[in-house]
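Weekly puzzle thread! Below is a chain. First person to post its structure in token form gets bragging rights.
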Amino acid sequence: MLHLLIVLLFIAILIALFSSLWSLLRRPSADGTTANRLLWRVIFSVLLILLLVYGFSSGRLRSHAPWQSSEHIHKQEQPNPDHIHKMPVPGHRFKTEVLA
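Winning reply:
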């Protein structure tokens, strides 16, 4: 239900934005229709932000960003890995080999 409200508010914001652009292009006079439609866009945007804050604070919404939770990355980390001695460590000079 919360996801549907978020989508509907986002669509309402886009409709208000494009209708204000349309009224600005059609009649650029100072009758106030463009400002009224932009006011509705601001109201819908504030409602969307409040709905998102409510969703994240209540736990109904959560972030799926990969940088938010890193427990799946550290699951396979070994405290004392055994394969460290197998890694090549370059010295101060590389040896050149010529294949003939």
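Puzzle host: Confirmed. Bonus trivia for everyone else. The CA atoms of residues 30 and 74 lie 60 Å apart.
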